[in-house]
Design a protein that fits this description.
Blueprint lengths: L22 H24 L10 H22 L9
Length: about 90
């Protein structure tokens, strides 16, 4: 929001949810998508999620598991500073 209380960025999302669903739940679902996308971007950029060179399913699972453990460690180490919104 800007100084006048008007939204700066407006985004639209299509949904096939039932008409009786609460708008707050729709907003929570739409915002959750951005958190997940950001997490994958961070895992690819900082933890090497996209840097695997494996030939089999088992090796890929081991690589992804180690990346997710490293991501969890990094999030715990950084606390909530990673996802805190600054104004």
């Amino acid at each position: 929001m800007d100084a006048d209380g008007q939204p700066q960025d407006v985004s639209y999302t299509l949904s096939n949810a039932p008409s009786d669903i609460a708008p707050t739940r729709l907003v929570a679902q739409a915002c959750g998508r951005h958190f997940i996308e950001r997490s994958f971007q961070d895992a690819k950029g900082q933890m090497g999620l996209a840097d695997y060179q494996v030939r089999g399913w088992r090796g890929w699972h081991h690589h992804v598991a180690l990346v997710m453990i490293a991501m969890l460690f990094n999030c715990k180490r950084m606390g909530n500073r990673i996802f805190r919104v600054t104004s």
